[in-house]
Every structure is written in structure tokens, then in C-alpha cells.
């Protein structure tokens, strides 16, 4: 059987299973068992799937996932998000359309504390949209920055996407986490420039608090404790004193301490945070297990090597090859959630990318950016649905689709900048070494 025929059967079966509302992890499991049965026979098939699945989740690198998730769940359950919003609002008081910049700044901090773009978007939508509209912001200014800045969680440590991409592709996770900071800054600058242009005609309330130096310094002091968990993740990795797994544990502990210092932590909240993190981590681990067995089947059937040869035949340019892969991921992101795009695409393309000599960290960051864009791209961008779920009822899904358009374009422009200037990715990684 030719590799492309096997690919159509495997990919078609996976898409059919997902379209039938079967959870992603179980969809992988069903396809893996059926494919392994035809490859090895009944007993060997089950043994292969079990061994491949267990070996994937036994990786020490994946230990970081539950700790990073715990940071986010503590942040949400304790209501620290309101502290961040209040602090950033004070710092930017008096700036025209400051609420938009507050959304972007909060999105960056939420990304650094939560690591998941969907959760970041949902929290910002629930806490900011109503307030911004009350202060005179139209729906475009109230929701656009929230849609855009939610994707920063894919780039700013502790990005769960970076951990998953690194573990699947064999890319150093510490390098991926640090490398995302430069592109995140590019995205933030593009968003702020766009808002500065849009805000020229803004006539709403500038801020809820007076624009005085004392107020702004108070905002800085209020925000300083929030920097502690960020340092205990990004800082310790950058300084080389901890691995990503160790940094995830120190970050979770630091978040716990900060929440306790604000008087927002008790055993009930901690237990709820822990259970939330464990439930999400268990789901992700099941998907990882299924994806690993799926990637081995792609290799055994010749699909992964066949795709590598096909891509090498189409182009000898590493940049063009990366563009093709990114386009595939972008299209998939319009119809699948971000985690599924990572698990379906990376096992297929990583051999081709390595064969063509593409710099792995650069590719990993670009892929993470594209996956984030998929989350805000109609018709099935998961971030958009998360925002709709918490937005005021008079805001339609069609309006959210309209509002997200400029931010999709700006994110694609940021991808173009990183493609043209790879040093944006490598500068911090090189300094870290």
C-alpha cells in the first residue's frame, strides 16, 4: 500500500471519529488499535499500543504540564485575575483607550501565569468586556484586544503548547519556552500600534481612577507580587538554575504563596484548583499517549518518511517547506482545537522538517504561533467560542467573527516578521546558553 493511501485511511478515520463527537484521546486509541491490528495481528496490536502509549507519558518532560496547569487554576480560583486588571488599569490611567492596553498587558500576564490561551481569553472576557462597554468602548475596542492577547499564552512561558510541541518533536523545551518571548513582544507591539490608530476617535471614559503618579506607583506595587511566579518560571529557566520541569514546580509553589499573601488561599480553594489541574492534565496525558502510538504507526506504515520525501520533492527550500507546514496547520486550526492540531500535525511533519535541515526551535515557535492563530480563526476557533460563552448575550457569534479579523491579520504579519528575522527567536536562547 502506498504511503498516501495509508495516510488517507488513517487521517480519514481520525477525522470521522472526531466528527462523531468521540473525545480526541479515544479517537486516537480507536484508530491506533485498528491500524495496529492490520499491521501486527490481534495480540501484538494491543501490546504495541499499550507499550507506545506508556512510554510517551512516562517522559519526565511532561511532568511540567500538571504544575503549569496548577498555576493557572490557582490564578483563576483565587480571583488573582482581578488584582492584575486593577493594577494594570492604575498604571495606564489617563491613556486614551487605556482599557485596550490593559487587555493586552493583562493577556501577557495571564499567559505567563496560566499557559493556556483558551483559559486566558475566557477569564479576560468574563472580567473585562462588561466593564469596558460601560466605560464607552464599542464592541470592537472592548473585545478585539481580548481576542488577540489571549493567543499570547501560546508564546509566553509557561506555554503548554510549547511543552507539547517540544515533547512530540524532540525539541528542547527550555529553548522553546524562552524563544517565544521575542515573538510575543512583536505581537504586542503590533497590537498596540493598531489600537493607537483605532483609539484616535475614542470618546469614552479614560479611566476609573485619576491619572496621578501616586496612582500609577500604587499599580506597580500592586502588580509586583505577580511577577514572582513569572520569575520562578521564566527567570530560573533563563538563568539556567532549573529545568522546565523544576521551574513548573517552583512556579506553582510561588503562585500558591502569592495567592496566600493576598489572603485568597484556603484549603477549599486549593483543593478545587488541584482537582481542576489534575482533570485537565489527565485529559492531555491521554491525548499524548494516543498521539505517540499514532506517530509510531505513521512511521511504520511509511507515511512520515513518505511525506518527508514528498515535501523534499516539492521544494528544497527549508523556508518554503515550513510555509507549507504552517499553511496545513492554519487550515486545520480553523476546524480543530489547538491541542488536536499539534498532536495530528507534528508526528506527520517533523521528519520532513528535520530532513530539510530546518532549525527546530525556530520551527517550533512558528508552529506555536500558527496554532494560536487557529484558536481565533473562524469558523471553529476555540478561543472565539470561549469568549462568546462569557460575553454579554447581545453580542452575536457573527460579530465576534468580524471583530477577530484584524487580529488574525496582525498575527499573520507577526509570523511573517519571525520568518524574515529568525534572530527574534534565537536571541534569548543564545544569551541563555
From TrEMBL:
Residues spanning the membrane: 37-60, 67-88, 108-130, 151-171, 177-197, 217-241, 247-265, 277-304, 310-332, 339-356, 362-387, 408-432
Record keywords, A-Z: Cell inner membrane, Cell membrane, Membrane, Transmembrane, Transmembrane helix, Transport
Stored Pfam families: DctM (PF06808)
InterPro entries: DctM, TRAP_DctM
Domain (TRAP C4-dicarboxylate transport system permease DctM subunit) ranges: 13-423
Domain of life: Bacteria
Chief location: membrane
Molecular-function GO terms, alphabetical: transmembrane transporter activity
Subcellular location field: Cell inner membrane
GO CC term (a single one): plasma membrane
Record's bilayer topology term: Multi-pass membrane protein
Its biological purpose: Part of the tripartite ATP-independent periplasmic (TRAP) transport system.
Protein name: TRAP C4-dicarboxylate transport system permease DctM subunit domain-containing protein
Organism: Azospirillum palustre
